[in-house]
Write a structure and sequence with these properties.
The complex is a heterodimer of chains A (109) and B (113).
Chain A lengths: L2 E3 L3 E5 L4 E8 L3 E9 L6 E6 L3 E5 L2 E6 L4 E6 L8 E9 L4 E3 L3 E6 L1
Chain B lengths: L3 E4 L2 E4 L5 E7 L5 E8 L3 E10 L2 E4 L7 E2 L9 E3 L8 E8 L8 E2 L3 E5 L1
Parallel strand pairs in B: 2-11
Antiparallel strand pairs in B: 1-3, 3-8, 4-5, 4-9, 5-6, 7-8, 9-10, 9-11
Classes of the chains: A mainly beta (109), B mainly beta (113).
Chain lengths: 109, 113
Amino acid sequence: GQSLEQPSEVTAVEGAIVQINCTYQTSGFYGLSWYQQHDGGAPTFLSYNALDGLEETGRFSSFLSRSDSYGYLLLQELQMKDSASYFCAVRDVFNKFYFGSGTKLNVKP
Amino acid sequence: EAQVTQNPRYLITVTGKKLTVTCSQNMNHEYMSWYRQDPGLGLRQIYYSMNVEVTDKGDVPEGYKVSRKEKRNFPLILESPSPNQTSLYFCASRGLAGGEEQYFGPGTRLTVT
């Protein structure tokens, strides 16, 4: 199986930049995805890295390094509405999905 | 509107009483999946389906059944629910030609007493 580790909680102030890390142990996967989930809501897709490097989507960027078994989600210009849980996920070669346990981001004014 | 729907949204039942949670998507997606979410454990995949009549076990399939008789529907069946299946359940779908994004339903909160 796969194992993905994330910090359980991160706190940052409005307007700041925060990085949420994801380290993984996997025998083979297609790429690293990130999802956002607000309290009481469903997960929504944020980004996907198939290859090593940085992918940018507006205020959010995601990075993958396969050689380091590591990825991160970078959120810039934090807003109160970014307070949510963030999950990294991989799809293995059998098309099974594995998610990390999630990082709760608290944005303070 | 492109969406994944689940029913019911909330369900309280007793141990051993068979139940079915329905999932339907209107995006013609090939891939459908069920997850359970428990505090501190993230999302864990129960079963997934690559297309009609093709289903496979995810990470935590014990105590669950699924079927995929139509492309749009992927019901989750608990034949004899137990209290350890109390959880928040999400159905999701993904188009195989549309990238990696999974679209999640609104969730079903199940309590088994």
